[in-house]
Records
---
Amino acid sequence: MSKGSAFKGRTSGVRHQRSGLSLDDARQAASPPSDAQTLSPKPQTLNPSPDQLLTIDLHKSYRKGATEVPVLRGVSMSVRAGEFLAIVGQSGCGKSTLLHLLGTLDAPDRGEIYYGGRRIDNLPAAGRDALRNHDFGMIFQFYHLLPELTTLENVLSPLMIAEGVWTYLSRRRAHRRRAEELLGLVGLSHRLKHRPRELSGGEMQRAAIARALVADPKLLLADEPTGNLDQSTGVEIIRILRDLNRQRNVTIVMVTHDLSIANQADRIVRLADGRIVE
Amino acid sequence: MYKLLLCWRYLRTRYIALASVISVTLGVATMIVVNSVMQGFGSEMQDRLHSIYSDLVFASVSLEGMRDASLHEEQIRKVAGDQIEAMSPTVVTEAILNYQFRGNWVTRQVELIGIDEKTQSLVSGFGRYLQHPANRAAMSFDLRETGYDVRDHQSGPEAPDRKQMRQAGWERRREMARLMEFQRHYEQRRNSAGSNDGAAVQLPPQQPGAKLPAQQAGEKSAKAGTTNTGPSKAGTTNGAGAAKARTTNGDSGDPFGARMFPDMPAQENVFNPAKQQNTGVVIGIALVSYRAHDGADWFRLLPGDDIKLTFPTNGQPPKATSDDFTVVDFYESKMADSDGKLVFVPLRKLQELRGMIDPTTGVGQVNAIQIKVKPGVDPQVVRDKLQAAFPRELYSVSTWRDMQVSLLSAVEMEITVLNILLFFIIAVAGFGILAIFYMIVVEKTRDIGILKSLGASRHGVMGIFLGYGLSLGLVGSGVGMIAGLLVVRYINEIAKFVGWLNGRPVFDPSIYYFYKIPTVVLPQTVLCIVLGALAIAVAASILPARRAARLHPVEALRYE
């Protein structure tokens, strides 16, 4: 979306912006080209709406043998740009399913999803892949780092997916600098060469956040990011997300069942029985 | 980029997959070794066949042959002169070879070829296969004094020496002549003694080995026309001398022969086997030799010995005629088929004996003209050209391949069948890769989900596993190629070692005509094998890769 510009954190100069979209855009336009300009261009939509993400009457059910189990029964909600939204609910109420639908990992049976004014639930596979790669960053309960790659390589993996061999190699220094910067941001500068299995849970989740941020997404989708962590580590992770949202203006949609965690968000939506209840 | 990185990491962390390509490695190595050895045998054989026969044979269809070789050669030059390097006329006929070995007459059926010794070596490899260095340089049907190869010039250092060849040449001939002369004297003395005083009655029966050379000597004398051995000489020798001679007459190193008859008159008009030779003949080495299990060759006769050839005349109907010849060299092409069949005599002499010379003009008939084409010229082109220019009813033109087509195609078919069978081995290895890849995809299900959630496309995920298959194939066939080439390089050492383990040689030189296993590595064959193995490895990874690509990201992420 548009103002993808919201955060071009490649240079430290723009790191601490808190300005709104328009200001940010103006600044970007005015500033001399930095290496941020080398990033692949983001898809632009013509008329950005304040609702970055909008769902209309989403339905989704899973088949279990012969019976159909409805999970979502008409979810309509919206997320504004720069918002930190928490979706809470009981286990099995469909929060993760909703998040997967938002992240285009799965398609709804019925209903529509708009991202920046563009419908995304019916995009072709290539379009959805690009969206996940460029515009969305995902954080999972079980971190989901690739065990064969080092921390640094894991963080770089979205860029590797985005670019061909030659493009990637020609930009690898800039990419590496950016990945190291992000790992520094989450406090993992000393773990660059470690494999995921050598990291603690908190470290893995922080690496996963760095990975989610590396492609400069507009939207972070977090699925129980603290679900597998102890209290204090979880708090730390939430603080990182909080800071990202505040300092970098990243829109965050977080799914959790822990109300104390959810309370850190700007807004809380409760999901029960496949519907939004408040 | 992530595909390369992940392929590389999978390659380095999944040793079980490497195990699955061992069969590819073995298959590739086996195919390279088998192909190289078969190719080695094949090209060695082709080489030898080619050098036995000339590039082209221009033959007369009728038995009588063509009347004038030089006239035909002129015509051939007119048709394709710029593509022809050399020509040589030949007469070919069936013949019977007789020679004596330990008193027994040995009979062999042979192919008798009359050749022009000046030009024969120009059109074929004939010259290369002779045993005297001077004959290899310039062929002559005159017996050489000595100097025949003791060491087989076509074999490596592992071939045992042919010690008998030290005696070959005039040395041998003089020795045999002396022996024969001695024998003849002995026979005569015995006969005269028998008629004089009946003393021979008490003599023990002759050893069979001594009897038959005596007969041969008798024939020789008959041929010479006269036998001149003074009865007075028989009278001067006493009974003691006869007894001595009897005990030593089987020994070719007998020193008595020379001493006993030092005063024998040399008669120039009489054939003297010690000084004269019959018409020279080059005979195939396998006709007179056998190979012991240690690879040493033993000869039943040597250059310098006489043989008898019987062959049909050119008349209508043909009659048998025969003549004596003196072996002047051995022909050893290392093709058992030729070495055990071919006998070469001078063209002119054979024409004479067969009545092929026109009494008025003195021009001899020939059966065929051997043609060597210039380097780089395809013999088939020249063949077609000549065949078109000369009437098919009278002349046939064929290349050396045409003449050996059954043998050559049999070898080619063997190679093909072996290759098909061996390729199945690699194909079986492909199923091993398929199974292990499937397991790896299942194991990596979650990772595939992660990649998809990060935006990897179906093609990308598929590419990872196809690339993984390709790199496994590269490793497998690369190692296989190196192993195969190393085995080919050291195949003789390996054969020796295996022979040592078994206690009996793998490659018995008494069966094969080579002392070493011949190998030829064709780069294009190696390339085909490696590419084939790669293709199988990639093909085997297609199914698992498609499965990986089709995994649903959400289900993949949930997979435990």
---
Amino acid sequence: MSELLQFLFSGVTVGAVYALVALGFTIIYNASDVVNFAQGEFVMLGGMITVFAHAAGAPLPLAALLACLGTAALGVAMNKLAIEPARGAPVVSLVIITIGASIFIRGAAQLVFDKQIHSFPAFSGDDPIRILQATILPQSLWVIAGAVAVFTGLWLFFTRTLLGRAVLATSNNRLAAQLVGINTPFVMTLSFALSAGIGALAGVLVTPITMTSYDVGLALALKGFAAAMLGGMGNPKGALVGGLVLGLLEGLTAGYISSQYKDAAAFLVILGVLFFLPQGLFGRKSTDRV
Amino acid sequence: MKTFLTTTAIAAFALAAPAMAEIRIGASLSATGPAAFLGDPELKTLEMLVEDQNARGGLNGEQIELIAYDDGGDPNKARTFATRLIEDDEVVAIIGGTTTGTTMSILSVAEDAEIPFISLAGAIDIISPVKPHTFKTPHTDRMACQKIFEDMQKRAIGKIGMLSGTDGFGASMQAQCKDVAPDYGIEIVADETYDPKDADMTAQLTKIRGTAGVQAILNPGFGQGPSIVTRNYRQLAIDLPFYQSHGVASDGFIDLAGAEAAEGVRLPGTALLVADLLAENDPQKPVVAAYKAMFEEKTGTPVGTFGGYAHDAWLILTDAIGRAGSAEPAAIRDAIEATTGLAGTTGIYNMTPEDHLGLDLSAFRLLEIKGGKWTLVE
């Protein structure tokens, strides 16, 4: 019993990390149908900037705020310098541009920062919380809380605010959105800023658990992307559920079958789900009018 | 007319030759890419030592030129650079191959061209079977397993659980440990793995703890994985003896895992980590202290085992060129093979035609972390 609980805790810890990364994908995807493969780099920057600002003497909350704002600014720059000039290019080209941006950011990070592995102290200490013989670290709760907060924020943003609806409208039909008076370039800029900021926040929250270095982005983005696909790309609920399901699958496979098969089992389930539900668990059905 | 031109050309070369007298040594290291945290200190070490050697008048009265390429950890690039070093740069010896993958690429090129090559990578396959021109400085992961099992034997531990990273280092050491465990009467009752980028390993550790008869846990791996495993180990309050590998033998490991979580962790490491604890009459003391002081002053970062490997490769090479009194590749090769009693940071090298590593188990010191500091177990 306590073993099962420990496997679940392990799965939830890992799953919350994936969910937080997956949530970052949703805004840019909703605004432009582009899967931003530089999302992992935003997560890395969140962690790295916090580490270096903290080491330079800034208190942790200020360092984290700096990291989120700095990364959001970088997201805007990426949109202005790389995505906007390619306006009108097909989505596939834009996706490839984001891959290029991710390689560039990774390269720049190893020059600006360094190539070592870093971490900073957990927000509420390292003493594990004990529940029925199983333990979970307080930082895992921070990550889960962060994922839920970001999810709630995004859900409210997309369903309750005019701006959120403007983002969705832009994604649906950019020309029509422009015709009804939506400032589409602003919507794109905003979505990159928000996505980058959320990515950086994820980096700040997960670094005490996963640690960070200039190259953590790729692996995180890959798992986050898998989680987002499983849940349904573009849907915050999908990202949250997809991430947690993926984490739990890994934890339970590692615990009950063998850790050798943990990634394989998770990806098999994803393949199975996508075979029957190509839009993911909560993906919207797209109907193209012809 | 033609004869005249040729003669002039030869004369010109003959005149220019003394001014160009220099020993060209090549290096292909992974200063960037996934193995950058190994290759970066290695490159800095070599550059620092070359500068120092030249400032002291060079070697055999000749200046040394280091031609270093960054292969980014990519074996294909390493092969290209090795070819370029030999054919275009005409080096007399090559140091490098930060990882086993890049080493294997350089190895085949160097062997074909009969250029002496000193690798900085761990795998035993590099020097076993012995290849005439290939040497290496780091101890093998097999030796690390033997050192750990020796200590387990002393503590009467017979059944262990292993949790290995799936990266090249972790997988290779996992295989070697399983291979030598029976020699020490040790049975591996649980064998789990993790991906080097995983965020949490409590599931694997819980499973190992639940396996009947486990008396100790061994975690071969490097990068952030072992730090996370160590934290998870304390999180679960497992009170079995815990062993790490030489892959995390650096101060960075204690910082990342946290002094509290790392308390009591044992691992095989080099003398470099415990420079201050070495006995005054320890033959490695002078070389270790000198390298540590020089590297830390030059770079402002603490020394690590990996930079030490590059230091030792350089030491072996310059020692051999000095003894050979010549910078011809064949003479260097013969001299390297005759290296005896050369104290490096990793251990004391005694090369033979059958052994192109030249270290024994005494090169490893068994260390234990106490109060956030390394201590010697022996």
